[in-house]
Amino acid sequence: MMGLPLSFTEPLLLIGLVSLPVLWWLLRLMPPRPRRIEFPPTRLLFDITPREETPSRSPWWLTLLRLIAAALVIFAAAGPIWNPRNQAAGSKAPLVLLIDDSWSAAASWDARLRAADETIANADADRRGVALVPLSEPARDITLMPAGAARVALRQIAPKPFTAERADALPMLDRFLKATGDAEIVWLSDGVDPGRGSEFVAGLGKTIGERPLTVFEGGTLSPLALADAENAAAKMTVKVLRADLSVPGGIVRALDAKGSPVGDAQFSFSPGAHDTEASFDLPVELRNDITRLEIAGERSAGAVQLLDKRWRRRAVGIVSGSTSDTAQPLLAPTFYLTRALAPFADLRLGDRGAPQQVISQFLDQKVPMIVMADVGTLSPELRDRLTGWIENGGVLVRFAGPRLAQGDDDLVPVKLRRGGRTLGGSLTWEKPQHLAAFAADGPFAGLAVPKDVTVSRQVLAEPDAVLATKSWASLEDGTPLVTGEHRGKGVIALFHVSADMRWSDLPMSGAMVEMLRRIVDMSGYTGTPGAGPAGETAKATLAPLHVLDGFGAFGPPPSTAKPLPANFQDRASLDHPPGFYGPAEGPTAVNTLAAADRILPLDTSSLTARRASYTNAEPRDLRGILLSTALLLFLIDAVIVALLGGGLAALVRRRAAPAAVAVALLATGAILAIGVPSPARADAASDEFAMRAVSQTRLAYVVTGNADVDSIVKAGMTGLTLFLAQRTALEAGDPVGVDPAHDELAFFPLIYWPIVPGAPKPPQDAINKIDAYMKQGGTVIFDTRDAVEAPPGDNGSQTPGMQALREILSSLDVPELEPVPREHVLTKTFYLLRDFPGRYTNGQTWVEALPKEDEDESAARPARGGDGVSPIIITSNDLAGAWAIRPDGQAMLPLVPGEPRQREFAFRAGVNIVMYTLTGNYKADQVHAPALIERLGQ
Fold first, then answer.
1. Taking the chain, what is the end-to-end CA distance rounded to the nearest angstrom?
2. Residue-level pLDDT at 694
3. Which of 560, 576, 841, 916 is deepest in the core (most CB within 10 A)?
4. pTM
5. Beta strand ranges found along 189-248 (DSSP E)
6. For 63-72, 138-147, 386-395, 731-740, which range has the lowest pLDDT when averaged over its residues?
7. Positive or negative CA dihedral for 665, 668, 673, 674?
8. Among 19, 1, 20, residue whose Cα is nearest residue 9
């Protein structure tokens, strides 16, 4: 209704609102105008001012109050429902459920699952087949399945940590619809357009044709995302993206490699803007420790930006041997180097003092990278220090010039031509040379070759057998422009041109910036010599280390994750999910969004479709609230009328005390009418609980009041329910938490009761209901969950959990118990089991003791069981702890001792127990076994 989650069970009654103008007119006429009677003697009374006056008409505000009360009554009669459930369209065709399951759907994934589950339930009521189509899996086959199987498959779908290209799924959907014919399409949209949304919307309209379409959108918070993080000179910035313009702002949190917070940055959006910037004004040392940026309160991989060594600002020392730095600073090599390195490095200029003195200072400061522009001869002591610094991981970058051409040292990657290779004898071409393609195995691989860069002079390298392997960039004639090699843990690189504009125009180009950026990425980022991956040889591929799931949490790499190239710079995909790749000491980050990615709201207005919204709350009947409000307004109206007519004042004067009592009684009655639930409401809640319990077979568990225990037990019973649906024909509903003192227990075949040490003993009424439940055929599993605490020997029964259980059982009529015999039917109801492990394996499982049998009967029966099912099962192995799973499908708790198949056997034990409570001892009856075996043999 008008974009609100509101519907009416009897909408035709809203026609009564048309009568409100008539009611306004009638109320304005009341009270009636007084009749005027001519009586001359009353002329003397005209000068007397009356103490009270009665108006001839009702005041407009009183009339408005009465109209509001009447409108509330009409609305209440129409049966308003807040957050109504989405009803089926009434079609008998198969249901095709399109699911947006990329990172943008993760933040409101629970609401989407509820909407999908309700849609599948409506299809189940009409006995229609269901096809699930996750739009992030274009290669997945679309098949129709029963509604029950679709619910199980729905629980196994999780949001993907990358951007899904919806349009890629259209060919698969088109083939399926052509083969199926008529179908009802329901699209669970996330409302986000990452770039090709209009293409998908147009293609979807053509693909489905005239088939009915329902689009779910709205009703949930729009996701936020991070992209384009940059560690600038003064601060670290990151782009915050939004699709919905109603999102005001938030906080971006920075974390280090251990997950500890480093800092927070607030952000807000300008009106109409889809992106903004969050800034971290932190010291460079702290910014270099940041490995993860995330939006506080967001649960998606898109709201996470991972940072690796490429985002860390290295300290770079620059020293020049030229004497023109002071005289002409805008033409000096340090000017061009500073402009090229400033965007991604913290620069330390050695503009004062001799070059050798400055280099020695840089070595004392443990700078990880030093750039030497035309520095010639070095003292032997300084050469030895530089050599040791490089061996320990330092990166030395040298630029040619007259001094280097005349110098003679081995701190260059290749042997240079000497003798006539001074500046005056350098090779000079009549036609300047352009750059050739960069070496595919060098650090500049993948960079675009600038066509406007020319070189007029260079320092030539002496040709040898390894010159080609050390050439990172060359000119068109094959002579090297940049050479480099690894020495120990460090790197030496040489630009065979000067760092200013005398020999080439490379310093003025963007290629110079990108080339220096690649070299800086090879250097360490801390003050410790040897830190960082500078000395490591670049690997061809990087294996996934740990990756993000759709909710932005780290986990092990999935089976679909593949190694990526060492120079990978694209966004995440199915083959390369976001996370860290490569060695743990220097991993490479892959993010969900690339730096240039932006998100916009998805426009589906061109589709002819029924619109529905996601809801985060249960439906709520508003009739009680509206009627209570109307009653309150009528009471206010009565009080106002009494005040205006003077009757209340007279009544107070005559009978002050009785009037006060009456008013107090009226007020108390109104409060009780509004605040106290009526028995009818309590009965309705009880009926709703009963209908929910009997609509499907459900397992139950006792709510202990301990939040941690109850959440684990609920997750455990949910995990067992999913396992039953996957391995057996039982499609049970969601488990139900019960309070034995108040809830009806007869609806559930099995109740799991976790024992909490120190918890108060249940009231006798609850004990009596449990006793009646067990005697009427129900089974209760008492789990003390303390097998690991039980000491060996007879004292094992003295644990706090067992003592609490003894207090409960002391008031119950418990039969004689025994450990589960090896031939008991419980060991063979579905799986063949020898024991019943949970989180622990050393505890015993006890059931009702069966009567002794003679040897002949024992030989004739392969399974032993009584006439019914044991009403009580006692264990200490913490079964629910082993069954508990998180929403992403991973186990919630570890196992002890953690054997390879312990969790699988725990689930099998749960299956046997459930089948035992549902089917009894049918496997103990083998009367027809010989005939069946004989028939199978034929």
1. 67
2. 80
3. 916
4. 0.53
5. 192-193, 213-216, 224-231, 236-242
6. 63-72
7. positive
8. 1
